[in-house]
Structures are given as C-alpha cells and as structure tokens.
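Researcher: We're teaching a course module on how sequence relates to structure. For the next exercise, students receive a sequence and then see the predicted structure as tokens, so they can try to spot secondary structure elements on their own. Here is the exercise chain.
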Amino acid sequence: MEMRIISLIASATEMVCALGLADKLVGCSHECDYPKEVVKNLPVCTYPKFDPNKSSKEIDDQVKTVLQKALSVYGVDGEMLAKLAPTHIITQDQCEVCAVSLSDVEQVLCNIISSRPKIISLKPNSLDDIWQDFVNVGIALEVEDTVKSTIDGYKKRINYIADRTDFLLNKPTVICIEWIEPLMAAGNWVPELVELAGGINLLGETGKHSPKIVFDDLINLNPDIILVMPCGFDMKKTWEEMHFLSENAAWPKIKAVKENQVYITDGNQFFNRPGPRIVESLEIMAEIFHPKLFNYGHIDKGWQQKP
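Model: And here is the predicted structure for the students to work with:
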C-alpha cells in the first residue's frame, strides 16, 4: 500500500519533509505553514476553537475557558481524515495548547477512519526528546538511515556553536519570555538552547513546561538580555504586544532594557516549534548573545532589535 501521511503538528510536517517524504503528505494541520511550497496545496484537517488573532491576554482567557470544559483547544476534521485515508497520522501527546491531542485523534479513529492508520505520537520536552521523536518518525516511516544522517547533520551544527561558547568567561544572563500576558518564562528545550548558545538561563527549567512569572522576577533577576518569543506569534504580533511590558513603570530600570538588549524573535517559526528549525533557533541565540563570534544572517528573519 502506498504511504499516505497526515501530519497534525507543524514541527512534524517539517520533519517529514526533512526526511525526503514531502510527496507522501496528504494532509496537515491549520498551523502547518512550512515549507510553504509543500503545505500550500495540502488539505487542512484541524481547526482552532479560539480566535488566534486576539491579544495574548484574550487568547489566554479563551484557552482557559475551553480547557475548563475538558476540551482540547483544537478540533479534528474527522470527515477530512476519513476522506484522505491515511496510512500514518502524526500527532502529539505533550501540550493541548500546542496541537491536536492524541486522545482527540484516537477518538476520531475509533469512530470514522476505516483505513486503520498507524499513529505516531510525539512528546518533546527537551532537545533529546526532539531527536528521539525524529527517530521515531523515521522508523515508523521506514527511513531509518535517512533520519540518522539527518540528525547527525543537525547535531554537528549544534556542537559547532557549543564548542565555541563552552569556554567563554563572560556569558550574559538571559530571560526568555514565552508569553506576555500573563507573563511566562520559556521552559522545555529553551533553557538548553540558552546554555548551548553561551548564555546563562535565569528562568524556566529544561524538560519542564513554561512557568508563570511576575514582573518583579524581571526586576529582581535584572538580566543582561531579554528574548521575547510568544508561542504562536510572529514578530509583528509580538511587537504589538510589547506595550504590556513597556508600559510598566519599572521596565526601563531593567539592565537589558537600559542597555538595549531586548530582542523580539519569531517564536512561532522557531523557538516553540520542536523540529528541524530548532537548530536555527540556537543560531539565532548565538548571534544575539555573541555577535563577534557568530553571524548566521537571521536578523529580520528570525529576530529583531528595537532601534
């Protein structure tokens, strides 16, 4: 039987394409937007149950309302899944706010899909988890050799940065903000990226979900650098949200603000997407933290600095 893949996670779609199987994709999620030439013609199999165009505060309120009803914040188009007759469906079992949940897919499978597809469920909480998910996808899609060489290439790029920053004496202290209103610091794999890029992470723990913080944390820890990377937001949307921070009377007192070391990043395309471009996320950090050592050309594509 010919392989027919539906990816319900943006990062997994990128994994499939990185493994040379883009032509086997027959459907994707509403959040899959890269590679554009691949996803633009794919049927969309999911939809949000909230308005993603609202402010961070309004989105947070909407998500809480949905979750209080014990519902996933995303829905699955069961009829579309059945029509596409997939042999494989890639979903996740990590965060119901990030993508369609495993339980939602299993419910649809039980009720509708007769093609009996294989479910590949990803659960990334750290960099090692991302690579293991990559391996699991490669094994399930029968491209074990390709996935090994692909991961080796990514790790070579990571090690190049890590080796150059490992012995630096003056490493900047860093806070990564994953949500603005309410405030949340980045967790999961982001603290690892900070350390690999030659920074000292002050908030958020590797392998754990992003913690809520208060504005006083920014003041008391007084970081050298602040990276703002709201989950699901591009840079334009993040700039629109920055007033929630800048309007606080204490904002100008923070060292990173005083020294113009606040950076806006594309959290949607990079830092909050646990797939191939997590390596580019590391490169973005490296060239921000240590511009004399690294210049990958990601400025204005993955990050910006307020003049």
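Model: If you want an answer key for the exercise: The chain has a mean pLDDT of 89. The chain has 13 helices and twelve strands.
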